[in-house]
Amino acid sequence: MSRASARLGAPRLGANVMGLALLPSALFFALFFFLPIGLMAVMSFLTGNPVVMPNVVATTRHYERILDDPYYFEVMWTTVRIGLYTTVAALLLGYPLAHLMARVKSRSLHALLLMAVLMPMLTGIVVRTFAWMAILSDKGVANQILQALGFAPMQLMYNEFGIVLGLVHIYLPFMILTLTGVIGRIDERLEQAAQNLGASPLKAFCEVTLPLSVPGILAGSLLVFALAISAYVTPILMGGFQIMTLPILIYQQISANFNIGFAAALGMVLLVLSMVLVLAYNHILAAVSGQRDLA
């Protein structure tokens, strides 16, 4: 009986230990994730800040203002469009390099490639954005080269092109590292077997490696898209106030208008918008790839 009791008590003891180990993480998420989002959701339905304003009442006027003005839908579409452009560009640029890093045989070359990917992340986002401003400004390096070659200067900043370029440079390492881990776990012998059966290297890649790397494409795309639509520093420096996105609009409402309730409503719209788009992208990619387990 004592041995049976010990065997029955072991799983309970393991579950208790696991629960205690997860407690700090649960508290961290509750304090720094769920609590701020909950407070933001509550503030979006109030007429003001209850801490400093008396007679605060519940209201839906902030959301009604968003629904009644087409300007805010235009800002949402601009934010989503920049996120999509950034995600597609990062995927097209990052997949070949990730494939090379996953398939390279030389450890030294793999280390050099990994260092090249990680080194930009050691520099702050503001510094990297200012570097792009020095390159793309009206009198920057790029326009100086164009003028030296006899071409007219181009407007490379304060538009969506400049914002997307800066965001791709910042978030490209996230795409590459995500794809490298997934591609590295794909057995190379599968491609070799396809080629032995008569498939060309390109067809073997399209029929074997690419479908098997869909989970990495999905994870990297979702990560880059979520970061891009919530970015603030790069869009405001590279686009100024010529290109308005939801994070910039939220900042304006807090810093200039002191309208915390409306800023909270815009923040909830950004959160819901990103969640809806992420779920839609998940289902679409799962349907296209035929892997229903991703949905």
Automatic annotation (TrEMBL):
User: Where does the ABC transmembrane type-1 domain start and stop, copy by copy?
Assistant: 76-281
**InterPro entries recorded:** MetI-like, MetI-like_sf
**Record keywords:** Cell membrane, Membrane, Transmembrane, Transmembrane helix, Transport
Keyword Membrane assigned to the entry: answer is yes
Q: What is its main location?
A: membrane
For membrane topology, the record states: Multi-pass membrane protein
The compartments listed are: Cell membrane
Protein family per UniProt: Belongs to the binding-protein-dependent transport system permease family. CysTW subfamily.
- The source's domain of life comes to Bacteria
Q: Which SUPFAM superfamilies does this entry report, sorted A to Z?
A: MetI-like (SSF161098)
Q: Which PROSITE patterns match?
A: ABC_TM1
Q: Which PANTHER family match?
A: ABC TRANSPORTER PERMEASE PROTEIN (PTHR42929:SF5), INNER MEMBRANE ABC TRANSPORTER PERMEASE PROTEIN YDCU-RELATED-RELATED (PTHR42929)
**UniProt GO BP:** transmembrane transport
Mark the transmembrane ranges: 21-46, 82-100, 112-135, 161-183, 232-251, 258-281
Per its UniProt record, what Pfam families does this chain match? BPD_transp_1
What is the scientific name of the source organism? Azorhizobium oxalatiphilum
Task: Return the protein name.
Answer: ABC transporter permease
Give the source lineage, highest ranks first: Bacteria, Pseudomonadati, Pseudomonadota, Alphaproteobacteria, Hyphomicrobiales
CDD domains, per the entry: TM_PBP2 (cd06261)
